[in-house]
Amino acid sequence: MAIIKKYAYCKKCGKPVTKPKKKTLESFHYQILVIAIIASLGIGLLVFIIYRKFVEKKKHCPDCSNEVQFYKNAKDVPGPKVPVINLLEKLEENKEIEEPKSDTSRKFVNCENCEKEFDDDATICPFCGWHHETIE
């Protein structure tokens, strides 16, 4: 007896899929179909129709066309994805909070070319690439 899996979930979209679809055919598939129809005097078309209608399963997400995963129970389906943007914003906020105070003993100089401030130890400006001579 086959286990019926009712609930589908797309990993890429991060959401449950109510009605999965069959994989869309690409131009290569149509070329093979035409060759098979011509070579078999039309019998290839009947085989193709039977395969598409009865054998091939609906197992692709209608939004992104990726293969979905099926689950037996609704509680087994993973929850929605956390948006990456919100996660990055939270990480940036935590970084600003935990960021140590800048060291005042470091020396900075202004670039002769772009007028931006950078570390005294560097010989090349990180902003414009201007080569600076170190004064000793």
* Ends apart, CA distance between termini: 85 Å
Question: What average pLDDT do the residues reach?
Answer: 76
Measured as a percent range, the helix fraction is 25-40%
Task: Give start-end ranges of low-pLDDT stretches.
Answer: none
Strand neighbour order, sheet with most strands:
2-1-3
Please report the total strand number as a whole number: 5
Number of helices: 3
| Helix and strand composition category | alpha+beta
Rg, alpha carbons: 30 Å
Please tell me the total number of domains.
2
Order of helices and strands: EEHHEHEE
How big a fraction of the residues is strand?
Answer: 5-15%
For the largest beta-sheet, the strand count, sense and barrel status come to:
3 strands, antiparallel
Question: Which shape, going by the Cα principal axes?
Answer: elongated
Key features of this structure:
alpha+beta, three-stranded antiparallel beta sheet, elongated, two-stranded antiparallel sheet, 136 residues
Describe this entry's structure for a reader:
The protein has helices at 27-39, 43-55, 84-98; strands spanning 7-10, 15-17, 69-71, 108-110, 117-119. It folds into 2 domains: 7-76, no CATH class; 107-136. β1 and β2 form a beta hairpin. Helix content is 30%, strand content 12%. The chain contains 3 helices and 5 strands; from the N terminus they run ββααβαββ. With 136 residues, the chain is α+β, with helices and mostly antiparallel strands.
